[in-house]
TrEMBL record, chain A:
PANTHER family: FOIE GRAS, TRAFFICKING PROTEIN PARTICLE COMPLEX SUBUNIT 11. InterPro entries: TPC11 (IPR021773). It comes from the Eukaryota. The lineage of its organism: Eukaryota, Viridiplantae, Streptophyta, Embryophyta, Tracheophyta. This is Trafficking protein particle complex subunit 11 domain-containing protein. Residues 141-410 form the Trafficking protein particle complex subunit domain.
UniProtKB/TrEMBL annotation, chain B:
Belongs to the TRAPP small subunits family. Sedlin subfamily. Transmembrane segments: none annotated. Gene3D superfamilies: 3.30.450.70. The lineage of its organism: Eukaryota, Viridiplantae, Streptophyta, Embryophyta, Tracheophyta. One of its GO terms (cellular component) is cytoplasm. SUPFAM superfamilies: SNARE-like. GO terms for biological process: endoplasmic reticulum to Golgi vesicle-mediated transport. This is Trafficking protein particle complex subunit 2-like protein. It comes from the Eukaryota. It comes from Brassica carinata (Ethiopian mustard). InterPro entries: Longin-like_dom_sf (IPR011012), Sedlin (IPR006722), TRAPPC2L (IPR044760).
Length: 959, 140
């Protein structure tokens, strides 16, 4: 097989000859060599193929081909480059063409650097052609240049982006944009320029989007150069999509203008149908029949323009614009650029609005309007609201229409805008944001719903195709954008009021509408519906309108006029009489305007009333909602209605102190003194009083622990009232510090009592709270409970203080004194003599003011050996055990209690062991009675004894 | 030429916005200023990424759009100043000088005891000073 050589002109590129093995078998190798030499073929271009090993041979053929191709492209490029360098042709067209060729060849060779260089050269040479070339008619000439520039730009951008040179690509795009930004051509047909510009942005956006997957962290790239600083947004495809859409919008409007202005453009010329793009990039020609043959002819600019207009009209630009803007919107939303996204949403919505698609438009306008509301961009908000108002009009959403209109008219648009700032003639459908415009919208809305029924037939003029006689109700809360329409501030004059007595309430209304509004009547609603009242405008005829909130027969007030003057508080003060106790709060104020329109505004306290954080009505004098400045600053929309005076007495029958371990009984008596008691409930609470302030941190233990120290053991039901308890199905709930007992129904004058048992585990003062809640008038549904509270502090006391100490053995042998000397720390651990009897003194002291009956005492040793626990029994001994002090030396104890009994006799006996002889003093005994302040003092004779030196022992008994 | 200057508060609410153009693009400029707040937010939140230093009040070029260039400035009290210009060739020093003067005028305006912080700046003196600064922009 012999393949033809690549170039028909030159034999520099040898044919590639492949010979099959079969040939080799026929022709000898020598002959083959001779043939090759004769043909002047390099040996590397002659390949031997073995058909059986074709798959192995194919790569060899491929590499031979590519080598040849590379050589060819290199050679071709070199040849053309030499022409460029020689400047053999002064024509710029040719230079552009040569550069393009070289670049394409370089691309074939994957020589990206050279490709880029020559594409750029071509681009710059092309730019020089603007204004110098005269080859084609003016318009088509520019079209051709721009089309080629676009192609070159596409090539350059692609090469840069594929090479990962994102910053360079963006900078290149900027240069491209600024080079051709002003190359508009004929201003009459500017739509051609806008279309071209739009395409540049779109193509670059798509290229950027495709490459952003490969170039991840472009933010880390050096952004721009000193000359051309780049910003974050310029790396986002969304930015270019948005601008592409913007230019296409320009094109669309320019084209629309052109079509509407020129008659010629409106006619679709049949001749333009035969115009087609030529084989040369950026040129157009017409196909004409000449006899049998079809020939291509150059066209005039007029023909071209007709063709371009008819082509442009075929495209639905709006759909393109919406699609690109949506891409941009989604991308900006993902980037958390809320404002950019909102702007894109606004543009999308405007496009839909232009396409008469109000529901889609409303969706995107709503996205925008929320952000502008939130950030208080009043003039932008006004514009969007104007669009939204028209959307709701087209959608027939009457309530939306009214709400949007009212929001618009209540906007704080400053009056200076009338002649100052916003002179934009390209308004949205809302018109200019001026006071006069606000007033006209105000009038439009109010005539819509305030006119009489007979006029409703003409609603079509307002754009609403249906009768709007259905009632319209608007709710305004604290975050509603309609809050400036009707602001209701309500202040009670008193913080606490008595039930069934008159109390004053001031109602202040403020409207930021531009024109005065007359209110037919006001309904003021409270949480206690019996307090609701109506304020009527005397000038308006009394219309018996059904009201869901105000019951018939409730309070009615009349005002000579109820007119809300713009930006002025309408202050109304009335007296109301609350029936029930508890919280009385004004909920809302409902204003009725006309026969069908009501606005309900949430009531606000003057004290808590705040301006919107970003929303200010700067241009008006701020006045207070009430004349009383204190009320204006501290006034509240809620007040507390006191309970009626309780006419039932609760008495706590004991006072204490209570003793630790004792079951302390507290009688509670409920006595009716004028009120009958129904559904009575007694709540009992024990509260630790240690928390008053003077308590150590150790005492501030968790409540659960504390509660164990004092607990309610039980509540003994009322004596003899068992049957009534079962009747009412009484609750009896007891916890450690809380108890709930229900009280049976009591008639006037009756009483009931129960006993509360409280046990102290530790000496601790506690506060006992007892509260009785009852219904004075039977079990009516709306009856209110009356509460009585009682409290009592009860001390918990330790009844006995028990002390013990060891007596040291008496000195039987004074010579042994040193040996039995107590250790210095004997206070803590007494050292006792071994194998000796020691005396343990145990004393129990009554700390209370009452007599205690000591039943028994026991002593236990926790020592292992000492299983000598003993019980000390005092048979029937009762009464006061005063301190058992003054134990004489030698007095022996294993019974260690001394009882002093009132009205009884107690014998105190002890043994004495004399150590020396002579006159000796007996142990002195003093008896002191606390109660009678009596004292016993034995005489000196009775308290001394003589000890003889002789052997006989002396015994003495003293009383 | 400066076409618009604006003061924007903490909650991105406009405190002062004034355009200096005869063309019908006041509303467009409002959009431009509003959108530029996104860039400021991004720069403030990611100071490293954008290469601006923290203690620099001048934020530089925020973004180019259509025929405008938008520059930003952030005061210590987080009030933003935004400048929109139609100049293609803008010298950084000119913009810095402008913002310095503008900042001084702003401080004067809010130091007025009758000015409520967070409210719109309605002072006529401020408006006059601003238009003087705008007029003298780029002259020296």
């Amino acid at each position: 097989m012999v393949y033809p050589p690549f170039s028909p002109f030159s034999l520099e590129y040898p044919p590639l000859i492949t010979l099959s093995q079969l040939v080799l078998e026929v022709i000898s190798e020598d002959r083959l060599l001779a043939l090759r030499k004769r043909a002047e073929l390099d040996s590397k271009y002659v390949l031997f193929l073995n058909h059986s090993e074709l798959p192995l041979s194919l790569p060899r053929i491929a590499s031979a081909f590519s080598e040849l191709a590379l050589a060819y492209y290199r050679e071709e490029a070199r040849r053309i480059k030499s022409r460029i360098e020689k400047r053999s042709s002064t024509s710029l067209d040719l230079i552009v063409r040569y550069c393009f060729k070289v670049a394409v060849y370089a691309e074939f060779r994957r020589d990206w650097g050279e490709a880029l260089k020559f594409y750029e050269d071509a681009y710059h040479s092309l730019h020089e052609m603007i204004g110098t070339s005269t080859r084609l008619p003016a318009i088509q000439r520019l079209v051709e240049i721009k089309t080629i520039a676009e192609l070159l730009h596409f090539k350059i951008s692609t090469l840069l982006l594929h090479g990962g040179k994102l910053t360079e690509a963006v900078i290149w795009f900027h240069q491209h944009k600024s080079s051709y930004d002003k190359v508009v051509g004929s201003t009459e047909y500017i739509f051609l320029h806008w279309e071209w510009m739009s395409r540049q942005f779109l193509v670059f956006a798509e290229l950027l989007e495709a490459s952003s997957a490969t170039v991840q962290s472009f933010s880390s790239l050096n952004q721009g150069t000193a000359q051309i600083p780049l910003t974050e947004f310029e790396f986002y495809p969304a930015y270019y999509y948005q601008l592409a859409a913007h230019y296409l919008q320009n094109k669309k409007s320019a084209l629309e203008l052109l079509v509407s202005m020129s008659v010629a453009a409106q006619e679709i010329d049949g001749s333009s149908e035969s115009i087609t793009p030529s084989v040369y990039v950026g040129q157009f020609s017409q196909l004409r029949e000449k006899g049998e043959a079809l020939t291509l002819h150059f066209i005039t600019d007029e023909e071209y323009i007709r063709y371009a207009i008819s082509e442009a009209k075929r495209f639905q630009d709006s759909f393109e614009i919406v699609a690109w803007l949506k891409k941009s919107y989604e991308s900006f939303t993902n980037l958390k650029s809320r404002r950019m996204a909102a702007f894109c949403a606004f543009e999308i919505a405007r496009e839909y609005f232009g396409l008469s698609d109000p529901s889609n438009a409303k969706f995107f306008f709503d996205i925008t309007v929320n952000l502008y509301r939130q950030e208080g961009w009043v003039s932008l908000l006004w514009e969007v609201l104007g669009y939204l108002r028209e959307c709701s009009r087209n959608l027939g959403a009457f309530k939306d229409f009214v709400e949007l209109s009212l929001e618009m008219v209540a906007l704080p648009v400053t009056s200076c805008d009338d002649f100052g700032n916003l002179r934009d003639k390209t308004y949205g459908p809302g018109g200019p944001a001026t006071v006069s415009r606000r007033e006209s919208i105000h009038r439009e809305v109010f005539t819509l719903f305030c006119r009489e029924t007979e006029l409703i037939s003409s609603t079509e003029e307002s754009g609403f195709k249906f009768a709007i006689d259905s009632p319209l109700h608007l709710e305004i809360d604290l975050v509603s954008p309609l809050r400036p329409v009707l602001l209701a501030s309500v202040a009670f004059h008193e913080q606490m009021i008595k039930p069934r007595s008159l109390c004053s309430i001031t109602l202040s209304l403020l409207s930021h509408l531009p024109l005065p509004v007359e209110i037919d009547h006001l309904e003021v609603q409270f949480n206690q519906s019996t307090c609701n009242f109506v304020v009527r405008n005397s000038q308006k005829p009394l219309v018996a309108s059904p009201s869901s909130t105000v019951q018939s027969g409730s309070q009615e007030e009349n005002e000579p006029s109820l007119v809300l003057v713009p930006n002025n508080w309408l202050r109304l003060t009335y007296a109301i009489k609350p029936e029930k106790s508890g919280k009385l709060e004004c909920l809302s104020v409902l204003a009725k305007l006309g026969t069908r329109f009501t606005i309900s505004s949430r009531a606000e306290s003057p004290a808590a009333m705040e301006d919107s954080p970003v929303w200010k009505h700067e241009n008006y004098v701020q006045s207070l909602p009430t004349k009383d400045p204190i009320l204006a600053v501290f006034g509240q929309k809620a007040t507390q209605v006191e309970e009626p005076e309780p006419q039932v007495d609760v008495s706590l029958g004991a006072s204490g102190p209570a003793l630790v371990g004792e079951n302390f009984t507290m009688p509670i008596v409920v006595t009716s003194k004028g009120h009958a008691v129904y559904s009575g409930e007694l709540k009992i609470n024990l509260v630790d009083v240690g928390g008053g302030g003077l308590f150590s941190p150790r005492e501030a233990e968790p409540f659960s622990l504390e509660s164990h120290h004092v607990e309610i053991c039980g509540i003994d039901g009322a004596e003899g009232n068992d049957e009534s308890e079962s009747e009412t199905g009484n609750i009896k709930k007891i916890q450690q510090s809380f108890g709930l007992v229900s009280v049976p129904n009591l008639k006037e004058g009756e009483s009931w009592s129960c006993k509360l048992e409280i046990k102290w585990h530790r000496a601790k003062p506690v506060m006992l709270f007892v509260s009785l809640g009852y219904l004075p008038q039977g079990s009516e549904a709306n009856a209110q409970k009356v509460h009585i509270h009682k409290s009592l502090q009860i001390e918990g006391k330790m009844p006995l203080v028990i002390n013990n100490r060891f007596m040291l053995p008496y000195r039987r042998d004074h010579l042994l004194l040193n040996r039995i000397k107590p250790a210095p720390d004997s206070e803590d651990i007494s050292s006792l003599p071994l194998n000796e009897k020691s005396v343990l003194v145990v004393s129990a002291k009554n700390c209370t003011e009452i007599a205690l009956k000591l039943m028994c005492m026991s002593i236990e040793l926790d020592d292992e050996q000492g299983k000598t626990s003993c019980l000390i029994q005092q048979g029937g001994g009762g009464g006061e055990t005063s301190g058992s002090a003054n134990l004489a030396p030698g007095e022996e104890f294993k019974s260690n209690t001394v009882s002093v009994l009132p009205k009884s006799e107690h014998v105190l006996s002890y043994k004495l062991v004399p150590l020396t002889c002579g006159q000796q003093q007996l142990p002195k005994i003093t008896l002191t009675s606390v109660r009678y302040s009596a004292e016993f003092q034995p005489s000196t004779i009775a308290s001394s004894v003589f000890v003889f030196p002789s052997a006989p022992q002396a015994n003495s008994t003293a009383k | 030429m400066i076409v618009c200057v604006s003061v924007v508060g903490h909650q991105n609410n406009p405190l002062y916005i004034q355009s200096f153009t005869d063309a019908d693009d006041a509303l467009k400029l409002h959009h431009v200023v509003h959108c530029s707040l996104d860039v400021i937010e991004e720069r403030v939140n990611n100071p490293k990424k954008s290469g601006t230093t923290l203690n620099e009040a001048f934020l530089g070029l925020l973004y180019p759009t259509l025929n405008y260039k938008v520059y930003g400035y952030l005061t210590n009290t987080k009030v933003k100043f935004i400048l929109v210009t139609t100049d293609l060739d803008v010298r950084d020093t000119d913009v810095r000088n402008f913002f310095r003067k503008f900042h001084a005028a702003y401080v004067d305006a809010v130091s007025n005891p009758f000015h409520v912080p967070g409210k719109k700046i309605t002072s006529r003196t401020f408006a006059q000073t601003v238009s003087n600064i705008v007029g003298s922009y780029g002259l020296n």
